[in-house]
Amino acid sequence: MSDIVLETRGLTKRYGGVHALEDADFILRAGEHVAVVGDNGAGKSTFVRQVTAVEQKTSGQIFFDGREVEFADPLAAREAGIETVFQTLALADDLDVPSNLFLGRELFKWRFGPFSWLDRKAMRDRTLEALKTTAVKIPNVDNPIRNMSGGQRQCVSIARTAAFASKLVIMDEPTAALGVQETAQVETIIRGLKERGVPLILISHNLRQVFDLVDRIVVFRRGRIVASLRKDETDGNDIVSYITGVKGGADAVDA
Ligand SMILES: Nc1ncnc2c1ncn2[C@@H]1O[C@H](COP(=O)(O)OP(=O)(O)OP(=O)(O)O)[C@@H](O)[C@H]1O
Ligand SMILES: [Mg+2]
Predict the structure, then answer these.
(1) Across-strand partners of 35?
(2) pLDDT tens figures, 189-226
(3) What is the pLDDT of residue 90?
(4) Spatial separation of the C-alpha atoms in residues 1 and 10, rounded to whole Å
(5) Ligand 1 near 184 CB (within 6 A)
(6) 92 pLDDT exceeds 90?
(7) According to the model, what pLDDT value does residue 236 have?
(8) What average pLDDT does this structure show over 43-63?
(9) How many H-runs (helices) and E-runs (strands) does the chain carry?
(10) Which structural domain range is residue 175 located in?
(11) Is 19 helix (H, G, I), strand (E, B) or coil?
């Protein structure tokens, strides 16, 4: 059996004339932690949005968990086992923290046809547990998300990822808005995923973090994948050369 968790072949996304993602061939294997790096606008988030069906791809194929997939929407991707922390956070502003954690997979006391009774206490208890594992300090989980800081929101989203067993975790710049302690905490969560064998795609501009955490680094430049390097066969300078176009790709000289 193949150990490939996620594969994209020729994945392409255009917004009108903008070639945001061109012909991306990407492979992630069981248990592997891969970083996706690249300049602003390189196509990293676009890649994530196609894989998770936030948007529909222009062309190309996506294989997940042994079969070709065409997810209808992000919830379908999530139900298939892809848990994502989006760069622009997909949280419901009007809902409190437990409701956000369980959005799309609410716990019920009972369900009968269209009638159901939410199990608020169970959801609240599991939320407090999840926040404990992330050491996230949120003053009052019953407050709507709209009253929280950017960092607190980010932490809710990461707690959600850590709380549910999944087949693949994708984090798009999870620590960009976080303080020093919270960043360290998220890195601990990521190491926990590695120990549990949960594969990860980590988008980050922080090369220190990338080299600390992942097995392999994939570089995006102008919508294309220009390098895929094992951590032990590269270094920070090498990666920067690919990011800036000094190395790799036909447009390497025009920078
Ligand atoms: N909805 C959209 N409509 C038109 N162009 C878009 C849209 N979303 C993204 N783009 C363009 O696609 C390109 C890739 O954007 P993307 O958000 O994937 O970059 P990124 O690598 O995630 O950058 P960053 O590091 O800044 O988050 C950019 O040129 C961007 O302007
Ligand atoms: Mg982005």
Answers:
(1) 202, 217
(2) 899 889 989 999 999 999 999 999 999 999 999 999 99
(3) 64
(4) 23
(5) no
(6) no
(7) 96
(8) 96
(9) 8, 12
(10) 4-253
(11) strand
Q: Which residues surround ligand 2, an ion (CB under 5 A)?
A: 44-45, 87
| Mean pLDDT of all residues in 162-186 | 84
Task: Report pTM.
Answer: 0.86
Rg (CA), the chain: 19
CATH of the domain at 237: 3.40.50.300
Provide the 8-state DSSP code for 132: H
Number of Cβ within 10 Å of residue 186's Cβ equals 27
CA 34 → CA 12, 114, 197, 229, distances in Å?
20, 42, 13, 10
Measured CA to CA in angstroms, residue 166 lies from 65, 84, 114, 231 at distances of: 11, 10, 28, 25
Count of the separate structural domains present in the chain: 1
pLDDT value of residue 89: 64
d(CA 156, CA 174) in angstroms, rounded, equals: 11
- Match 């990338």 to its residue by tokens: 210
Task: State if residue 24 touches ligand 1 by the CB under 6 angstroms criterion.
Answer: no
Q: Is 204 in the pocket of ligand 1 (CB under 6 A)?
A: no
Longest dimension (CA), the chain: 64
pLDDT > 90? residue 156: no
